Automatic annotation (TrEMBL):
It comes from the Bacteria. It comes from Psychrobacter urativorans. This is MerR family transcriptional regulator.
Length: 103
């Protein structure tokens, strides 16, 4: 595992990703096949810390809810959408608060 100067993130091989997340290689490959994760550096088949975080999150969801790989894709998409909506709401609240303080 090495650090990528361009991405300011770690860069790891498939074997390193599998070892870091504690899952079977076939399970991680299923995540790739379902487009839940992609190679961060496709030409050299490498992954970043972002993919590691996604794989670990998927592993927790799989363990906690006995979710299939396709279901994990949907769950992760919905969780990401919720996070985006919460961020939008925080920005909206800050904007509204600024307008109210100007009055």
């Amino acid at each position: 595992m090495k650090h990528s100067p361009e991405l300011t993130d770690i860069v790891m091989s498939l074997d390193e990703l599998v070892a870091a997340c504690g899952q079977e290689p076939q399970w991680v490959m299923a995540l790739i096949e379902e487009s839940i994760i992609d190679y961060d550096v496709p030409e050299s088949r490498q992954f970043s810390g972002y993919q590691l975080t996604t794989v670990r999150r998927a592993a927790r969801l799989s363990r906690d809810f006995d979710a299939s790989v396709p279901a994990l894709g949907l769950i992760l998409d919905l969780l990401e959408e919720i996070e985006q909506l919460r961020q939008f709401k925080r920005q909206w609240d800050m904007h509204t608060q600024m307008i109210e303080s100007e009055d």
